[in-house]
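JOB MANIFEST
job_type = single_chain_structure
chain_count = 1
residues = 175
[input]
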Amino acid sequence: MADEIIEQTPAPGDQAAGAGAPRKRLTRAERRARALATRAAPRPPRSPEQRQAERDAERTRKAQLRRTERQRARTAAQAATGAATATAPRERVPGVQKTRQGVVVSDRADKTITVRIDTARRHRRYERIVRTSQTLHAHDERNDAHVGDTVVVRESRPLSRTKRWRLVDVIERAR
């Protein structure tokens, strides 16, 4: 009987039992019933609207706590990096294209290359390095890049159904 334990303190009705008397074993159900009996009085019945209002109030309270904690962490991070002013979230600047560096994995199509972009980042929870890759199609006007070359591509307007990038430069030729 692994779920039985020996009672540590005598029950209120067991006053007659002396200090040398053997203690009674309680089952899991008896322990649970005793724990429920010692709890505070149950709350009065509430309507569903009242319960929903309590849940909403609790959510609002927790959201406020999260907000203040994030603001405190932001302030501490800025103090650690020496930033004097609070930085706004990054905004997109129109007219500035992204650039990526990758390896050409295919050059079969005319004036098109397929580029594999490898990224390594730290996992937010587990803090291990997670490596991922992404392939994209880039426009190569002069058929300059070949398989294995390391290239730089820049974002552009849509050139076809899948092409949204242009070849900028071939950094390293494959051997």
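[summary]
Helices lie at 28-38, 48-81.
Residues 99-172 form a domain with the OB fold (Dihydrolipoamide Acetyltransferase, E2P) fold (CATH 2.40.50.140).
exit_status = 0
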